[in-house]
Amino acid sequence: MFAWMAWTAPVAIFFSCIGLMLAGMTIWQIRSPSIERRGFLPMSTTRGDRLFIGLLTAAYVNLAWAGLSELHQGIGAAIGFVVLLIVMRWG
Fold this sequence. Notes:
Blueprint: H1 9-31, E1 37-38, E2 44-45, H2 47-68, H3 73-90
Antiparallel strand pairs: 1-2
Helix pairs in contact: 2-3
């Protein structure tokens, strides 16, 4: 069924982490509903909004790193993760 995809270990880890983040955010939202707040983003956001924006931003950072840099992609992934954390905390 999944033979058309290149399921390598990094791809499996990536999708597992996204799934775990979504499950964790769902449990967190059920146990402690979020309220909208303003950070450095130009709009009021909830935790889920910031996760979505942070994931999109991390994806763009990774794409830019892959297209513009000759260095190891793990560095781009680490930068994307840090950006995601910054958006989640202060966004």
